Structures are given as structure tokens and as C-alpha cells.
Amino acid sequence: MLIKRPPDVRSSEITDQAVYLRRREFMQVACGTVAGAILAGCGEDQVAAGQASRRFGGVRAGPFGTDDTKTPYQTIASYNNFYEFGSDKSDPARYAGTLKTRPWTIRIDGEVEKPANYGIEDFIAPHTLEERVYRLRCVEGWSMVIPWIGFPLSEVIKQAQPGAGAAFVEFTTLFAPEQMPGQRTRILEWPYVEGLRLDEAMHPLTILAVGLYGDVLPNQDGAPLRLVVPWKYGFKSIKSIVRIRLTAHQPGTTWSKMAPSEYGFYSNVNPAVDHPRWSQATERRLGEFLRRKTLMFNGYGDQVASLYAGMDLKRNY
């Protein structure tokens, strides 16, 4: 069917195609805002009620927390970017039940003195679990505040004993198309790969998360093990990790290879460096109606700005 544009409609009044295609995401954010407002009064015990609880014991309060209002559990577990299960924000919650998180093996190798394979229980057992309430800022302009349960990545790296040539850390997500339907598409190059500079990986803010709100991670949030790097955009915090490899050279990462002009290796939260298709100066916290100003390094500048002393953060985006 051919639809003609009336001659009295100016080009400036026509909705941009990119905006039109993102209408569904906008509606989901709006719905998440309403749901967040309704659920904001729930305490942690109420949030867990009705869930198939698998709560961790002996969790201590960790450093670097925030007093920001926590995003409700239901919002965290229903609004996700996890392309292995689909590109729509609701797809991970809908389809991630197919992911089998036991047994689960993590391989540590590369430029290390002690390469090893670990089962997930053996991987977690030596570490004291902490609750870290961190802000999570997505490159698309929305954010959450999440009470993660985890431990510093530096403990794992130290145990592996980095070699003299180690300068970067590469992370790889599980590749299992039979469990992850999004991997049957070509929307991204699989498996998903991310990376950090070694000093970023060793920073005490950087953690491996195994839970949130006191429970084990929901599949859609990266079970059974994910990275959390709170001063970087969310896609850097890779989910469902099966391999941690130390390297001498900067690893090629999935989004940086897919769209290098849009997703740089560093991807530090920076309100002064816009994404080519939208501003990064403000963000919408899920559960709030109004947008708020984006904070440099997502508000963690006092802790991490020294990592980038002398660097051009517009060039090294």
C-alpha cells in the first residue's frame, strides 16, 4: 500500500525514524516508572515475598555504597539488556528460564601463573560476600540503583597470579544457543566479549556479582556470575561469565567491534561525551518521572578519576 504525504506537512513535523523505532522502549520506561513508583514503598522482606528465595547467608555490608533509593526488585528483574535472550527489554525475563546455571564452569587463563577451571560453588566459596549498593547507568539513558551481592574481582585475579605481561582482562559470556535464543540470531557476534584494563579490573569498586537483594541472581540479570563496574555504562558489566582471560593486548569487545563509533573500549559514564544518536547529559532513573543530570563517572569520580589522569576522555570514550 502506498501512503502519500500531504503537501502541507513540513519535513520538520515528521517523526524521525530512529525516534519512531524506539517508541516501544519509551513506553516500557514509562511503564517501569509507574511500576517503580507503586513498588517504591516495599521493604526488602516484602520484595522477597512470593519469590523462590535462595538467600545468601553471612553477607556483610560492603564499602562504596550509595544512599540513593534502591530500584525495586521487580523492576530490576523485568527490565534488562541481555541480547542473548532478545533485544526487547522484557525478553530476558520472558525467555531466560531456559538458562541452566548448574553445573557451571569458569575458566581462568591467559597471562597467569595459575590457570584453572572452577565450578561456580568452588569459585564463590573462598570469598566473603558483600552487599554493594551501586548505581547502574545504561548507555541508552536509563539507570537503576541495585543492591548487588558479590566480591571484588581483584581477589580472583590475585589468586590466578598475573604474569609480567598481563595488562588487560577479557571476559566471555556462555555460548549456548539451545539455551539462549538470541544467540540463534546475528544481531551480535557471539559469544559476547568484554574487557577492562588490568588496573580497572583490580580497582576495589569492580566486583563479581552472584546475587541481588540478598538472593541469587535471576537468570535475566546475569546468573550465575556477572561483572559490575559501576562507573562505566551497563554493557561493560558482562553477564553469565564462563571465562576470565588475562592478556597483554587490549581485547576486541563485542559492541566496540559492532559499532566502534558508538561504543568505545572505555565507556566511562561521561555527560560531556554524547552517544552519536542521543545525549548523555541526563538520565531517567527507573521509578522516577523527571530526568536527572548524569554524574561524571556515574558519581564515582572520587574513587576512579585517578585511573585516567592525563587521558583525553573524549578520544578514549
Report on the architecture of this protein.
The chain is an alpha+beta fold. It has one domain: Oxidoreductase, molybdopterin-binding domain (Sulfite Oxidase, Chain A, domain 2, Alpha-Beta Complex), CATH 3.90.420. Helix content is 20%, strand content 21%. The chain is built from ten helices and 13 strands. Strands 1, 4, 5, 8, 9, 10, 12 and 13 form an eight-stranded mixed β-sheet that branches. The longest helix is centred in the N-terminal third of the chain and has 17 residues. It is globular. The N terminus is likely disordered.
Summarize this structure as a short list of keywords or feature phrases:
single chain; Sulfite Oxidase, Chain A, domain 2; 8-stranded mixed β-sheet; 5-stranded mixed β-sheet; 10 helices; 21% strand; disordered N terminus
**Count of structural domains:** 1
Helix content: 10-25%
By secondary-structure content and strand pairing, the structural class works out as alpha+beta
Tell me what the CATH architecture is.
Alpha-Beta Complex
Alpha plus pi helix count: 10
State the CATH topology. Sulfite Oxidase, Chain A, domain 2
The overall strand count is 13
CATH class: Alpha Beta
- Series of secondary-structure elements, N-terminal to C-terminal: HHHEHHEEHEEHEEHEEEEHEEH
Overall average pLDDT? 87
Oligomeric state of the chains present here: single chain
Low-pLDDT stretches are 1-52
Rg, nearest Å:
20 Å
Beta-strand residue fraction: 15-25%
Q: How would you describe the shape?
A: globular
Query: How would you sum up the major sheet?
Result: 8 strands, mixed
